[in-house]
Amino acid sequence: xxxxxxxxxxxxxxxxxxxxxxxxxxxxxxxxxxxxxxxxxxxxxxxxxxxxxxxxxxxxxxxxxxxxxxxxxxxxxxxxxxxxxxxxxxxxxxxxxxxxxxxxxxxxxxxxxxxxxxxxxxxxxxxxxxxxxxxxxxxxxxxxxxxxxxxxxxxxxxxxxxxxxxxxxxxxxxxxxxxxxxxxxxxxxxxxxxxxxxxxxxxxxxxxxxxxxxxxxxxxxxxxxxxxxxxxxxxxxxxxxxxxxxxxxxxxxxxxxxxxxxxxxxxxxxxxxxxxxxxxxxxxxxxxxxxxxxxxxxxxxxxxxxxxxxxxxxxxxxxxxxxxxxxxxxxxxxxxxxxxxxxxxxxxxxxxxxxxxxxxxxxxxxxxxxxxxxxxxxxxxxxxxxxxxxxxxxxxxxxxxxxxxxxxxxxxxxxxxxxxxxxxxxxxxxxxxxxxxxxxxxxxxxxxxxxxxxxxxxxxxxxxxxxxxxxx
Length: 472
Ligand code: CA
Known about the structure:
Blueprint: H1 2-15, H2 22-27, E1 35-41, H3 60-67, E2 70-72, E3 75-76, H4 82-91, H5 118-124, E4 128-134, E5 152-156, E6 180-181, E7 184-185, H6 192-205, E8 211-216, H7 228-233, H8 240-265, E9 272-278, H9 284-287, H10 303-306, E10 310-313, E11 322-324, E12 328-329, H11 333-340, H12 357-361, E13 371-376, E14 379-384, E15 387-392, E16 396-401, H13 417-433, H14 443-457
Parallel strand pairs: 1-8, 1-9, 2-11, 3-12, 4-5, 4-8
Antiparallel strand pairs: 2-10, 5-6, 6-7, 9-10, 13-14, 14-15, 15-16
The chain binds calcium ion.
Calcium ion binds next to loops.
């Protein structure tokens, strides 16, 4: 505990971010607080939006968010799997500070109840708060969204489920994958992604403002399920799994469109901050997502697991259709939102993110971060500017220069010994300052993901799994 406290004191001044520019403070008087909409995709590939360059996926509504806002090219969740990524996003703090390294087990653990969520912070600033969709940071009653800063919850506690109502499986009594509304298990009709879009509209249309809505899709996470109508639109895609995936992303985009149109119809577009991102990279083999030009996929520390589409739209505050190349984290969403809402991000436990607005508007030069860290049980990574270090416990270290090797093809660990040693020391210092994990994961993932990392470091293209295993 002593070293953790010391680290928190040290980080307090370094990572919270610069003082707010006066134009932000001036705009956010209590009567002009912006509404906030965070749209989180689940397991979306880096290259799977039209605005990211996809040739076969169509996302006209998400593209519109990008066209009216800023697209980040070097943005990262804090984990390459669902639950810890969400814990980082929701608290604005490395989830390793509270032992949340791995996906939450079915029972007994969840996101530390002593951590304040973005819902808590915005509610204390007068916001009406809601989550529609996937929670996945604890199934227990003490971890329930309504107790973690959200007035409104329509969705599932767990990590994934069928896109259709199924009383024989996910919708059995007390199943954590069942759909619930504020503590009550309920039935739903139709395709879940469409239903989540409808519920987002219902929430937005409630009169009280400002609001904070976390629209947390399960799409395009497995199971691979789409409607016949959406599948028909992508009959040109020959690969069956890719066709289903395209239809699932199309449905998600349609649901996003409903929410965006609702904002427009209610005259809220000019005063709403919209974020769009994925919780982790695409698991290319299980849902046929495409992370190109990045190497790797969900569950590992190559960029394909931890670099995601990341968009911010805030009309009249940031330049439409712009691009931001600085090193950015999902940790930055928390302080950016709290600052925009007129709050003080420095209040409470130290945050690990930075208010992005001064960087986007040019009031602050450089990157929001020089260094970022990732770690889960057996595998770690660190960024220091253009340099990227990967650690695998059964292998050792690999080093890449992302400036001229974004696809992480050339391991420089043996050539750049000084750089390697400096980053090893930096990564290990950071890891030692974090809490121990409160739970682990099946040893199966140690073996499989260890091999995935080593194959990529050694340039082996084909990665074969020993056996099928569900999970995220
Ligand atoms: Ca995910």
